[in-house]
Amino acid sequence: MDSEANNASESPFGQWQQLFNSVGGGQTNMPNIMGAWQQFGDTLKQMSSGQNPLAGQSMMAHESLSDVAKMVDAADLQRLQQEYLKEMAALWQSYSSQQSFDITDRRFVSPAWRANAWANYLAQSYLINARLMLEMADCVKADAKTKTRVRFAVMQWVDSLAPSNFFLTNPDAQQKLLDTKGESLKLGIQNFLTDLQKGRISQTDETAFEVGVNVARSDGAVVFENEYFQLLQYTPLTTKVGERPLLIVPPCINKFYILDLQPDNSLVRHAVENGNTVYLVSWRNADETLAHTTWDDYIEHVLIKAIHVVQEASAQDKINVLGFCVGGTLLSTALAVLAARGKDAVASLTLLTALLDFSDNGVLDAYVDEKHVVMREQAFAKGGVMLGKDLSNAFATLRPNDLVWNYVVSNYLKGEQPAAFDLLYWNSDSTNLPGPMFCWYLRNTYLENKLKDKGAAVVCGEKVDLKKVNVPTYVLSCREDHIVPWTAAYRSQATLAGDKKFVLAASGHIAGVVNSAKKNKRSYWTNDSVNLDKSTSEQWLNGADEHAGSWWTDWTNWLHAHSGKQVAAPNKLGTAKYKPIEAAPGRYVKVRAA
Fold it and tell me: What are the CA-CA distances from residue 501 to residues 247, 248, 328, 412, 583 (Å)?
């Protein structure tokens, strides 16, 4: 499986480029994929002569599936084979009698897939084969992390083989070629060449957005900066504010404006509108000047520095803090370091889809093992930068049909232009990370899971003990999160002390967090009747109450209790010591990754 895992970790854009070259007569390094489609081509020839294609022409004969089969119990394998042959026989019988069926898989829902009998058969056959492979991966006899890696590799292989991904087997793309008299093919080639220059697949119309103009547009100013970050303060929107300000720490892996896209879906604006003085960390997009920056540097010179600046600027001993994703991991680590130094700096902590206990990381476990981490450590032994586009490609493979192949089909096979969508614009605005910092993060969290154990991790010269972070904490997870599984977020809250509230939001890692209270969509769950440290995630969910709408309102109500007395909102930004440097969103966030 090692070779398959390596193939799965390659850039999806690189995979498509190889496929594109193979269709155009060039060379390909993906014989598995093209070999499997040669089998389908052979099947087509057989069908034209009226032969039953079941004998020896399925993916079951493919060597990749054979590798997985060797890890499956014989009884399970026999059961799956019998089910498979039964389904394929029924499909062949339906095809022979010229019957077609509606397919619910959105890759094959257009009328063209139903109208063309062969295309309908091909799609149905593919889905049966795909289901077989994934079920076989689920039956692999191995530890949980190995099973995750096997299923991930199989999923990458299966999704790349969908007949919708290839012009010769996509009747929808073929029909568009006829309808446009060849224009769609011309546009598709142009789109591909344009993306080839970018080195990534376009997911949205990037010309429709500009940071600071129609995204990241909340009013404010940069009131502090150093070589690692800028600190933004936002203009009050109420006459009264809580005396304790709120410091927001977004993930350093992405730009901060996921929390400030448009006025109607800006968590930043929501917090300001609800009477909070809001400060926010804007991470610098790492370049070679930060090539030797470490995790300790980020803790000391970003997190702890930002906390101290906000304390001074607000004249408050304690402030409220919020960390999103890895921003929450960094923030919690910084609070543990401060606690080890005898400093009590915060009145409350909010964690949004953040991991502190990395025992089970879902599909991300497919990427992290000792071999992979050592490879990264060797690559950055003398410093360097982890490129944002590599991180983006890795995250895209977590949902390949939604974030890769969907755009391959629409952009290249159909020659369509992606629509303007602010969230996908943000998603394409990648961020580089310092190599040494990234390596520490991989080894000490995802690989060795040191943060959860008292004293196992040493940061800024202090032994980390998260139990010393003893403050009221609001923990949000998202039910369909593929990056931070909600059960892992639930388990992570147990590493902290203090009074904790756990909330489960509907949807995924981003859509679950960016769920505007003004639009009031989806729902969230709460359960205040259980002891979080003594209950499992399943027990918590069984007794949870569902609430319609956004969790934002619940959170701001909770935060209000920790914001101190109401005082007059500041009539100007900054202080005599921390004077405004430039208008929000600042220049750091506008730097595009190379």
Answer: 19, 18, 15, 47, 35
Comparing 156 with 383, which gets the higher pLDDT?
383
DSSP-derived 3-state class of residue 547:
strand
Would you state the pLDDT for residue 503? Answer: 98
List the beta bridge partners of residue 566.
242
In contact, 422 and 261? CB cutoff 8 Å: yes
Q: pLDDT (tens digit, 9 = 90+) per residue, 182-235?
A: 999 999 999 999 988 887 889 999 999 999 999 999 999 999 999 999 999 999
Residue of 547, 528, 538 lying closest to 475 (CA atoms): 528
For residues 445 and 253, the answer to whether their CB atoms sit within 8 Å is no
Non-local CB neighbours of 174 within 8 Å, separated by 6+ positions: 112, 167
The letter for the amino acid at 340 is A
Q: Are 370 and 447 in contact (CB under 8 A)?
A: yes
pLDDT computed for residue 196 by the predictor: 86
Residue 115: band (very low, low, confident or very high) from pLDDT cuts 50, 70, 90: confident
For 276, 434, 496, 502, 544, the CA distances from 499, given in Å and listed in that order, are 22, 35, 9, 10, 18
- Pairing type for strands 473-478 and 346-352 reads parallel
Return the active site residues. Answer: 325
Q: Is the dihedral of CA 156, 157, 158, 161 positive or negative?
A: positive
**For residue 539, how many other CB atoms are within 10 A of its CB?**
13
CA 563, 565, 568, 573 torsion: positive or negative?
A: negative
The answer to whether residues 447 and 327 touch, using CB atoms and an 8 Å cutoff, is: no
Please write the tens of the pLDDT for every residue from 161-188.
899 999 989 999 999 999 999 999 999 9
**Residues 156, 153: Cα–Cα separation, whole Å:** 5
β-strand partners of 230? 225, 282
Rounded (5°) CA angle 425-427-429? 75
The strand order across the sheet containing 319-324 reads 545-548, 523-526, 500-505, 473-478, 346-352, 319-324, 246-249, 278-283, 229-234, 220-225, 582-583
Q: What per-residue confidence (pLDDT) applies to 58? A: 35
